[in-house]
Design a protein that fits this description.
This protein is α/β, with parallel strands linked by helices and 122 residues long. It has one domain: 2-Layer Sandwich (Nucleotidyltransferase, domain 5), CATH 3.30.420.10. The chain is 34% helix and 36% strand.
């Protein structure tokens, strides 16, 4: 990934739960500069839901930025990210439907647009 290319964006996500409150944080960078920081608190959610929510928010924000053709998502929860694309996982169908709506538009604009996931263990 080229951090110098203005059409590439980097999304870094993380989520954790403490005292039954899930916190998800998403950082979006373009050209090695922070563009957007999203912080959410959710009550009565599990860790997987919080991680999926953080990824969803990052994808939705990045696909709405003008001129973006490549999105790289760095997360410590590749297992959660894989569930986005598993249509048999009924527990996460609501998240899947909302997550896949924005990328669909992103790919319709240009079939060469790319979303990739990088794992970064915590």
């Amino acid at each position: 990934m080229s951090l110098e290319n203005p059409s590439h964006t980097l999304i870094i996500t993380n989520a954790s739960i403490r005292n039954n409150v899930a916190t998800s944080i998403t950082h979006i960078h373009i050209c090695d500069r922070p563009i957007i920081k999203i912080l959410y608190y959710m009550v009565n959610d599990n860790s997987t839901e919080a991680k999926l929510f953080a990824i969803m928010c990052g994808i939705n924000q990045a696909t709405s930025l003008y001129g973006i053709s490549k999105i790289t998502i760095v997360t410590d929860s590749i297992h959660s990210a894989k569930r986005i694309f598993d249509s048999l996982s009924h527990l996460f169908q609501i998240h899947t439907a909302s997550i896949l709506h924005e990328p669909q538009n992103f790919f319709v604009l240009n079939q060469k647009n790319l979303i990739e996931f990088w794992e970064c263990p915590s």
